[in-house]
Amino acid sequence: MLFPTHLAVAVLLGRRFRLSTAWLLVGAALPDVVDKSLATLGVVDLFHTVGHSGLLLVLAIPVAYHGRSGLALAVGWGTHLLADAFQIVLNGRPTDALFLGWPLVVPPTPMALPPLSFARQYLWSPAFFVELGIWAALAAVVVADRRRRESE
C-alpha cells in the first residue's frame, strides 16, 4: 500500500473510534519510516523488515495498554501491517506476506523495489483500486464534516 494511504486509514480510524489521530498517524508511518530508511541506507536488503515484523506484537501489546495514546500508536502500526499484507495477497504475491515473520521467515521471492519503483509498478494493480476506495471514503467523511459544520 502506498504510504499516504496508510495515513488516510489512520485518519479514518481516528474519526471512527475516537482515538488520537496524531498517535494513529505516528503508528501508521512507523513501519515505513523505519524500514525504508534502513533499506535505503543499505542496512537491510528488503523494504519490509524490522518495522513490518509481526513479531513486534510482543512490544505493541504493552504499548496498547499504556493509555489511549498507546492504543492509537499500536492500532496505527497494526493496521499498516495488515494493509500491506492485504495488498500483497490481493495483488497475487501471497508468499510475500511472509514479511510478517521477519527475521524468522523471509519471503522466497520478495519484491525488493525501492519506494518510487514500487509505486510505478503498483499503479493499476487490484489493490490500487482498493486504495482509491479508501480515499473516496476519506473524501466522503471530510465533505460530511464540512456540511455538518455549515449547518450548525
Q: Outline, from the CA principal axes?
A: globular
Radius of gyration: 16 Å
Number of domains in the coordinates? 1
Low-confidence stretches: none
Task: Name the helicity range.
Answer: 55-70%
Number of strands: 0
Alpha-carbon distance between the two ends? 37 Å
Question: Mean pLDDT score, rounded?
Answer: 94
Q: What letter string, H or E per element, gives the SSE order? A: HHHHHH
Per DSSP, what share of the residues sits in E-state strands of 2 or more residues?
Answer: under 5%
Folded structure, characterized:
By secondary structure, the chain is mainly alpha-helical. The chain has one domain. 66% of the residues lie in helices and 0% in strands. It has helices spanning 3-17, 21-40, 57-64, 67-90, 115-122, 126-151. The longest helix has 26 residues, at 126-151. 30% of the residues are buried.
Précis, in short:
This protein has helices spanning 3-17, 21-40, 57-64, 67-90, 115-122, 126-151. The chain has 152 residues and is mainly alpha-helical.
